[in-house]
Known about the structure:
Helix 10 crosses helix 12. The protein folds into two domains: 227 residues, Rossmann fold (3-Layer(aba) Sandwich), CATH 3.40.50; 102 residues, Magnesium chelatase subunit I, C-Terminal domain (Helicase, Ruva Protein, domain 3), CATH 1.10.8. A hairpin with a 2-residue loop joins strand 6 and strand 7. With 331 residues, the protein is α/β, with parallel strands linked by helices. It contains 16 helices and eleven strands. The radius of gyration is 21 Å and the shape is globular. The protein is 45% helix and 16% strand. Strands 2-5-8-1-9 form a five-stranded parallel β-sheet. The mean pLDDT is 85.
Amino acid sequence: MTNESSDRDLIAKVIAAEKSLKREISKVIVGQDKVVEELLFSIFVQGHCLIVGVPGLAKTLLVSTLARALDLQFNRIQFTPDLMPSDVTGTEIIQEDRTTRERHFKFVQGPVFANVVLADEINRTPPKTQAALLQAMQERKVTMGGQTYNIPEPFFVLATQNPIEQEGTYPLPEAQLDRFLFQVNIGYPSFEEEKIIVEKTTKPLADDVEPVLKSHEIKALQDIVRRVPVADSVIDYAVRLVRNSRPSEPGAPEKIKKWIAWGGGPRASQSLILASKARTLLKGNYTPSVEDVRALAHSTLRHRLVLSFNAEAEGIGSDQVIDQLLELVTN
């Protein structure tokens, strides 16, 4: 960012984009303000998002509505136990030249070649198919038959997962979980929100979501977010917070050593700072604060912590561990 006048214009542009997206999403989705907000943070920093919630909380509907509001190419992959890696990335077929009769391989792109990919119930497919997304999520590319194919930009994987049905599921490996910027947990709606949901969904539906952002506009917004300056003290706090989640770290709190087997890696620190940049812009500020980092700690860290047997035996979950971490690691 350069001068105060242009900074104000850039911030206003990001805030206007967020308001437009929220307006369109609210036409279909009732409540879930924090979930929608964190989903938009992911979009503005080009991060992937894992959405966890019980059935019936509109996880799939939320992602598809967001894709329509973004005016991007959208593909949904329903993950099942018999899904193969080629069903995600694509496959090579033999094609014959009608003139020369020569045969050659042609790559047919899979559903991952889209701007927004909904990986629905991602934990219902075996690890080899889950792993088909790894290169795409990290490098925005797919390698097949010795050739590398670029996925169109912008590219987001928004995955859903049901936390209560464990039969016939395959937990995501830590390496893949680490590729997600956030794990966003969706809870039940309030009484008033549920009344509105029932009323809206039991009468003729009005499908009037309009696209408000195109791909080049999204890229411009992502560039604005990346250019936000961050004070050394804020980066220092984010790094200390993540490093203290590692039981092997000298000086890590005793409770953390007891409850965590493996802590967050460098991607966790990067994600905290990137997401903080988006959060501070959308609040109309010029640079992130420690409070921005703390506000995003749960969504950024909960899927990156491997809890120990002691934590499981005591009924301690990731969010409770992060609460302790925030309490113990001060400014």
